[in-house]
Amino acid sequence: MSSEQMGSSWGFIEEGWRKGPWTADEDRLLIEYVKLHGEGRWNSVARLTGLRRNGKSCRLRWVNYLRPDLKRGQITPHEERIILELHARWGNRWSTIAQSLPGRTDNEIKNYWRTHFKKKTKNLCGNSEKSRAHLWKRQQFQQQQQRINNQVDIKNVMSLPTMPQAKEEMAILYPNTIDQQEQVGFFYSMVNNSTSMSQSKPSSSSNEDIMWDDLWNLDDFYGYFINTTTCNKATPNCLQTMATTPAFY
DNA sequence: AAGACCCGCAACCGCCGCGTG
DNA sequence: ACACGCGGCGGTTGCGGGTCT
C-alpha cells in the first residue's frame, strides 16, 4: 500500500473492498452478521450483509475489537508478568500467549510487547559488549547469591500465606525438575526482588530501569529454567491458572 | 504557541497450514 | 497427489493523541 493511499484517501475502496478505519455502521453490520451466523465464514459477510469489507478485514475487526468478551483497559501488572513469562516460554507466539490471558487479543499483546518491552531489549542489545558482559556477570552473581540463599528463600517463601497454591502451580508447570524446591525458591526470590524494588521507589526512572533490568533477568531466567528442566510439555493452560490466580503474587 | 517527538493502537500485508474437492 | 480457498498468525505500518522542547 502506498503512502499516498494511506494518507488523504485513507478509507478508500480498492478492488471493490473498503479499507481503513471502520465506521459505526460497518461495526453494526458485522455484529448483526455474527449474531445471525456465528463466527467464521468471513468471506460470506460481504455477500450477506452488503458490507464492503473482505473476509480478513471482518475477522480481524471482530476478533480484535468487536468480540463481546474482550477485556478493555490497560494491561495489569499481573497480566504483564504473565506476558513476560509466556514470552520467555513461547517467544513471539502471540496467539498462544493470548489464550492464557482471557479477554486479551494476540494483537493487543503483540502491541503491548512492542511498546513496553521491545525497547528494553533494544536498549540492552544495543549496548556495548562491555555492558552485556556486565549484565552477564551480574546475572551470574545473582544466581550465585540465590543459590547460597536458597534454603532461606524457600523457608521465607513457603511461609507466605499464598505460597502453597503457587507452589502447586509451579509443580504443575514443572513436574519433573531435578530439584524443584530449589528452583521454586530461586524463582520466587527473583520475583520478590523485582516487586519489592518496584514498590519501594516507584516513581524513580532510574529505579524503574533497575526493575526492568531485573525483570529481564527474570525473563532470561525463565529461558534458563525452562531449558534446563525436562518439562517443556507444560501447556498454556497451566499458565492460565497462573494468570487467573491472584495468589501468584 | 507551535513544531518535534513519542506512544498506543487499529488495521493491513504476506505467509502458512489445513480442509476440501 | 494436487490445486484452491479460507482462516489464522506474526510482522509491519501509519494515524491520532499526548508530551516535550
UniProtKB/TrEMBL annotation:
Which keywords does the record carry? DNA-binding, Nucleus, Repeat, Transcription, Transcription regulation
**Pfam families, from UniProt?**
Myb_DNA-binding
For biological process, the GO terms are: green leaf volatile biosynthetic process
Enumerate the subcellular locations listed in this protein's record, separating them with semicolons: Nucleus
The Myb-like domain, residue ranges: 14-66, 67-117
Q: Which CDD domains does the UniProt entry name for this protein?
A: SANT
UniProt-listed SUPFAM superfamilies: Homeodomain-like
A GO cellular component annotated for this chain's UniProt record is:
nucleus
- MF annotations from Gene Ontology: DNA-binding transcription factor activity; transcription cis-regulatory region binding
Under Gene3D superfamilies, the record lists: Homeodomain-like (1.10.10.60)
> Keyword Repeat, does the record have it?
yes
Q: Which SMART domains match?
A: SANT (SM00717)
Task: Show where the HTH myb-type domain sits.
Answer: 18-70, 71-121
Q: What is this protein called?
A: Uncharacterized protein
Q: Highest lineage ranks of the organism?
A: Eukaryota, Viridiplantae, Streptophyta, Embryophyta, Tracheophyta
